[in-house]
Amino acid sequence: MWRRAYPGRHDIWEIGQPRLDGLVRAGPDAVVRARRLYGVEPGQVTVLYSPTGREYPPQGRRGLLLDAEWLADELGPHVVVLQRHGDTYAPGSTARHPRVRDVSRHLVLEPLLLAADLLITDYSAVVCDYVLLDRPIVLHAPDWESFRRTTGVAVDLLADPPGVVVRDAAELLAVWRGGLLDGPEAAAARARLRRWCCPNEDGRAAERLVSRLFLAPELGAGQTPAS
């Protein structure tokens, strides 16, 4: 896929992504610090809502984006919603709600992922980062056919989803209230996605990168220095 998208004579080093090392190696203390960073109290459940950008105005289509304030109210008083829109069409800040944090301007994603107990997204690549934490994922996909036709996708996440797929807000609430967010099938689906999209994420990608760049730059593509 990378060679098709970015053709050239460059080598591709399959070593993992150094930016994800901290996510893979994070322990309970890192999770506590991340939750404190966003004002999440002990005992609260944190939902990260992070839809992808679109090439058409989603506000003109009923139910395309979830309203973060509505989501916080419907999911209950113990839920904090972190709203992250990477879209010029996204609604404005919802910072007035006491349990909604607008984190759209937070460029570093890893603390947000660590703080979240649940990810709600659609077709965003954030899934391939969050799946490393092995926590529940919901794909809110009301416009799959339109998105695939207008924007295009490299991977059909809905063919083998790493979590529950819902088409509208009513289905999302039914899944939440029915306790259907997670289970053996969802865990197995997340494991399949990890094997496919992030097989090299073991927390040592930065180490391998430094080794290739400075200790063994003469190695060809696909080779790594001897330990």
TrEMBL record:
TM region(s), chain numbering:
none
Q: What is its main location?
A: membrane
SUPFAM superfamilies xref list: UDP-Glycosyltransferase/glycogen phosphorylase (SSF53756)
Do you know which InterPro entries this protein is assigned to? Glycerophosphate_synth (IPR007554), TagF_C (IPR043148), TagF_N (IPR043149), Teichoic_Acid_Biosynth (IPR051612)
Location within or outside the cell:
Cell membrane
Topology relative to the lipid bilayer, per the entry, is: Peripheral membrane protein
For this UniProt record, the keywords arranged alphabetically read as follows: Cell membrane, Membrane, Teichoic acid biosynthesis, Transferase
State the similarity comment: Belongs to the CDP-glycerol glycerophosphotransferase family.
What protein name is recorded for this chain?
A: Uncharacterized protein
Species of origin: Luedemannella flava
Source organism phylogeny: Bacteria, Bacillati, Actinomycetota, Actinomycetes, Micromonosporales
